[in-house]
Amino acid sequence: xxxxxxxxxxxxxxxxxxxxxxxxxxxxxxxxxxxxxxxxxxxxxxxxxxxxxxxxxxxxxxxxxxxxxxxxxxxxxxxxxxxxxxxxxxxxxxxxxxxxxxxxxxxxxxxxxxxxxxxxxxxxxxxxxxxxxxxxxxxxxxxxxxxxxxxxxxxxxxxxxxxxxxxx
Length: 168
Known about the structure:
Elements: H1 35-49, H2 55-64, H3 68-72, H4 79-82, H5 85-99, H6 106-114, E1 117-127, E2 133-142, H7 147-162
Antiparallel strand pairs: 1-2
C-alpha cells in the first residue's frame, strides 16, 4: 500500500486507469485541459459568432417583428405596421447604436447553461447620488424556480444591499 508507484497521492488507487504513477506527482487525466477551459473557449466561440447587423438588416427584421411592450399586452402591432420607412430606419439606427457597446457574455451564458440556470430579466442596479451606474447584479435561477420565488429573492437581495449602498 505504501508503494509510491502503485498508488495515488492519497495512498489509494486513484482510478485513472494507468498501471502506476508516482505519489509525488498527482495523477493527470488523459486530457490536458479542464472543464473550465472548455467553458471559457465555448464562451469565446459563442461571442465570436455574434454578427453586428447592418441598419438595413435590422430594418428587414423589424418590419415583421412585434413591438415588445405592445405585444406583451396582446397587441399584434409590428414595427412595420406602426412606422413609415423613415421611422423604422431611425429605430433601426437606435437599435444598432445600443448593440455596438454590448458586453461579450458568451462565457457567462455557457456557465449558466452548464449549471442548469436561466437568467432572470430583473437586475439590481447600484449607483450613488443619481450619478452614473456603478454596478449591476444579474441573477439566474434553476428553470423550475417559480416566478414568485424569483421575484422575492431579487427583492430580498436588493433590500439587503440597499442597507449598505444605494440601489436603483
